[in-house]
Amino acid sequence: MKIKLVLAATMFAGISVFSQEVKVKKGEIQIDGKSVAKIDREKYIYTISDLSGKALFTATITNKTPLNNDASKSWLQLTGTNGVVRELELIDKTSFSLGLEKPITENLTKSTDPLLPASGIDEAKINSFFQTEDKSISKAEDAAIEETKEIIRAEDALAAENKILIDRVGIISANNEKIGYIVRKVTGKDGIQTYLSYTVLDINKIPIAKIDFSNYDGANAKYGLIVKTYDGKSFPIKMANYTSERLEEDKLAPRVIKKLYANGYTLGDMKSITEIAYQENADAANQQNKEMEDHAKANSKNIYDTAGYVIDKNGNKKEGTITMEFESISEKIGKEKNISDVTSYGTFVLLTTNGKTETHKAKDGVKFCVGERCFVGADGLEDGGTGNSSGSQLSVLGESLFFEILAENEGNYVLNYVKNPQYLYLKLANQSKAIYLGNKAGFGTKKPEKIKKIFDEYMKCPTLDFFKYDTTNKEGLVQVLADYSAQCKK
Questions:
Q1: How far is it between the farthest Cα atoms of the chain?
Q2: Integer Rg of the chain from CA
């Protein structure tokens, strides 16, 4: 209970902080109309003071690192009066502002543990905060940037050694010999930017790699630049951007080629290598598809290669292995979307004996069993709105289905359709069709009087009082069959 209370209090505090109204008015930071500190600016540095004017620390938002690199992210940089620097991640959301004053004040007042809380300045807390330095954000950015620079230096050196060049029409050469091509394509436009791609091809014009990008630097920075190869590998492109439609002047195109070359994609004649890779990719995709299909089958309502028997339309019992599909495996794994499926699921069963497979259809009143479960073929009546159909595009023509037998009494059955087992049916031995006696209709629900009429017409036994039974559950329908056997003329 204590943990729950602490968690609830923390959540409430967070909500309260972000609901506070923070303003700067006449050089004072106000929270919900109450002044808590003073703020003064000199260029991009803001000095935070108490209300008497005593300086406490300075603040700015920057992406400049100790090694003078420009990082891909910004952070809040605070400097105490003792010269100690602390770096903090920026909060997720701040109000729109053209300057730094508003985001700085909101970061100082709306963080989870604000230096400037609504209760007022705690100078002891601020002094304690600046006892130790923390430049972990900028140092991490420097480390990543310097690592990228080293990679780029190695790529440039290898390219220079092999005289890698791109001419104005996109021909790539190495050591004065043509090794491939790079092709730019416009893939789309909107009101702000043009979407483009570079495709790199070997000497046979076989695609080796591709990169998608924009002519808008901001989009490239936000989503990243990644070159993807024919064999499924990806390489990020950093510290380079699209700068010109002229290939020989663009900064991105040569960086892509250098990146590929340094990672073993040296172009030239790569036909045999790509053919192997394409086959390996195809094999891997086939294996993945098989695993997905096997998993879908194992978790489906279908029955596959299971020992059982069929009572065929002539009353003959035949044993073997049973395969019965009530639902589409392709649909379960997301294959063949937007393609009409003409398979009539649930309308036929396959029996394999001694390597020979026979098809037995539900419309023939066939019965089959696997283990303790048995099924019988029948037409469904009055079941519009239940979704109990094969799912085939041809089902509108009418069809019989295999229903699972839940209970039996003198050849009379309580059934359900496996795909939607919540909807139950009755089937009398002297009827070829199974009747749905629930209240589901094509539009809305059926009134009890309507269901009674359907019940009376199907049962043909005036002594049975429909209103005695709950025809929406198994127990109610089992009682109907029991009373039918005892009271009705056969």
A1: 103
A2: 37
Among the listed ranges 94-103, 147-156, 200-209, 313-322, which one has the minimum average pLDDT value?
94-103
pLDDT of residue 98: 79
pLDDT score at 273: 87
Residue 345: count of CB within 10 angstroms of its CB: 24
Mean pLDDT over 271-286 rounds to 85
Q: At what angle do helices 136-161 and 252-262 cross, to 10 degrees?
A: 80
Q: Are 302 and 342 in contact (CB under 8 A)?
A: no
Instruction: Quote the tokens at residue 299.
Output: 């978790």
Contact 255, 242 (CB under 8 A): no
Go through the chain and tell me how many residues it has.
Answer: 490
Rounded Cα distance, 306 and 323, in Å: 7
Range 150-155, long-range pairs (CB < 8 A, 24+ positions): 152/238, 152/239, 152/255, 154/262, 155/255, 155/258, 155/259, 155/261, 155/262
Rounded CA-CA distance 346/308 in Å is 17
What amino acid occupies position 153?
R
Q: pTM surpassing 0.70?
A: no
Rounded Cα distance, 428 and 408, in Å: 10
Q: Compute the distance between CA of residue 332 and CA of residue 297 in angstroms, rounded to an integer.
A: 9
Element (H, E) at 30: strand 28-31
SS3 293: helix
Beta strand pairing call for 85-88 and 70-80: antiparallel
Amino acid symbol at 252? L
Contacts of 238 (CB under 8 A, 6+ apart): 148, 152, 225
Strand pairing report for 373-381 and 433-436: parallel
As given in the structure block, the two tokens for residue 382 are 């009055």
Distances (CA, A) of 334 to 285, 293, 428: 14, 10, 39
Q: Is 271 helix (H, G, I), strand (E, B) or coil?
A: helix
The mean pLDDT of 106-116, rounded to a whole number, is 93
The full DSSP string for 177-222 is EEEEEEEEEEEEE-SS-EEEEEEEEETT--EEEEEEEES-HHHHHH
pLDDT of residue 477: 95
Q: 452 near 466, Cβ under 8 Å? A: yes
Give CA–CA dist 40/30, Å, rounded. Answer: 14
- What is residue 368's predicted lDDT score, i.e. its pLDDT? 96
Amino acid at 129: F
Q: Which of 243, 222, 226, 244 is nearest to 235 (CA)?
A: 226
pLDDT at residue 316 greater than cutoff 80: yes
- Average model confidence (pLDDT) across the chain: 89
Question: Helix, strand, coil: what percent of the chain each, to 5?
Answer: 30, 35, 35
Cβ–Cβ under 8 Å, residues 386 and 401? no
Partners of 321 in the β-ladder: 307, 352
Tokens of 47: 């000095």
